[in-house]
Amino acid sequence: MGEETSDESRTSIEKAIEAISSLISLSHSIKSFTLKWQLIRTKLDDLYSGLAALSNLEHHDPSLSSLISAVLASLTDCYDLATRCVSVAYTGGKLLMQSDLDVMAASLDRHARSLSKIYSAGILSRGFAIVVSKPGGGACKEDVRFYVRDLMTRMKVGDPEMKRRALVKLNEAMEEDDRYVKIVVEIGDLVCLLVGFLDSSDTGVQEESVKALFFISGFGSHKSVLVRSGVIGPLVRVLENGSCVGREASAKCLMKLTENSENAWSVSAHGGVSALLKICSRGEFSGELIASSCGVLRNLVGVEEIKRFMIEEDDTMSTFVKLIGSKEEIVQVNSIDLLLSMCAKDEQTRDVLVRRGGINELVSVLSDPNPLSSSKSKEIALRAIDNLCFGSTGCLNALMSCKFLDHLLYLLSNGEMSVQESALKVTSRLCSLPEEVKRIMGDAGFMPELVKFLDAKSFDVREMASVALYCLISVPKNRKKFAQDDFNISYILKLLDREEGSNVSSDSGSNKFLISILMSLTSCNSARRKIASSGYLKSIEKLAETEGSDAKKLVKKLSMNRFRSMLSGIF
């Protein structure tokens, strides 16, 4: 008997769900009382969610029968009102129709709230564990939408645990297939529902909802939907008071949203800047959270007023400088990136960085051995030094006073390829500084290391190395020291001979740089003699025949040396 009653209840629920779908469709064709029908559609949608929850039950409580009967009666009356509005048949006039529509909206709202109360009392929790199967990869859009709506129903009427499980399923679906993200955004009130969950007292629901919003924020076209749904304020509150997982996801979501500078002020208005600074200044949080917070702040400092506020806060710069020495790569990288953004084109902020020991910390990242500093950290530290120090006398002086050249030379010689190239770029910048710096670099041993890069596969690397070496040997002391090592000159000549053998014009390619170096070396008597007496003179003369002006000058210089040698032999 009970089993029969259950089947009858299921049939009634399915009938009510079909009636609601039909009503919603019909209501879109009504041209009058649009605001009232919009309200009724919202109530129908809420009722649909509650009934969908009931349809998944294995067993139905007898107490639901009277409620379902009342729902069906209201839906019949609503359908009658809809058909009269479509045909503009207002029996009793418009005022009476308006009154009838208000009564209908109230009636539907009452049914929806009754379903919600029944569920809250736990009547549905035993049977509602059945979840609609997730559609396969080739499923049509309607199947995907049906699955998402089923999950949304569970989020609306379920207890906290059911809400959490539905959110987990939604997140898994969005992570696997971008179509689910689009469907979530298209179902208007679902985004608002997720935003509302950010203030949930249940930690699991809050964590999963902020993860869902993070997935959505990864799509540029959907960011504006999140902002219009009022997501920023709740995200900041999660950042302040949420769990570790919730805070991390919130920071990542804010980092995505603040890529658009227009959202920076909204974060600041909700107290986001202070919350982010607090996270960065306290050592109790995870590296992932601190790094993401630095990422958000990096986006925010693009607004000058926010940057000034941050700098004026006590110990803000010291906090970021301290983070450079973090044990975690992601914190090192993001904190350096943040400092770069803060100091860009701002001499005053750079001075603060120097006073807080920022340059010393950047150099410490380059220190070897330093197991805490990865290749990526070294690369970004070198980029920061390149961008910050050469435009500021204070930064440059601080750089040269903390054994930077020793660390740079080591990376130039022993670093990974990407680190070597970054080190070479900084070396090239240093070589453009006054003669005293170039003299120190020559004594430190930079020239032999630069020679090794003259045969690199990358043209840009060969060019940087050649220009840097040319600048160093422009100093007489360095030139003399360079010429003392027979390998240096013979190696350059060997490379030049190989270039000549490949029929490359002296005015294009690497041999142009090599000839410039040799031309500079001819100013040193010992170097000029070594070049003239080498077996590569004919190769240089052959290059001159291709009308390379630099090669012709070199041949002329070397020919004068031979002529002088002949004269000295005669007299």
Automatic annotation (TrEMBL):
ARM repeats lie at residues 271-300. Keywords: Repeat. InterPro entries: ARM-like (IPR011989), ARM-type_fold (IPR016024), ARM_PUB (IPR058678), Armadillo (IPR000225), DUF7032 (IPR054296). Pfam families: ARM_PUB, DUF7032. Residues 15-123 form the DUF7032 domain. The keyword Repeat applies. Signal peptide: none annotated. Residues 247-469 form the U-box domain. PROSITE patterns: ARM_REPEAT. This is Vacuolar protein 8. It comes from Raphanus sativus (Radish). The lineage of its organism: Eukaryota, Viridiplantae, Streptophyta, Embryophyta, Tracheophyta. The gene is LOC108828535.
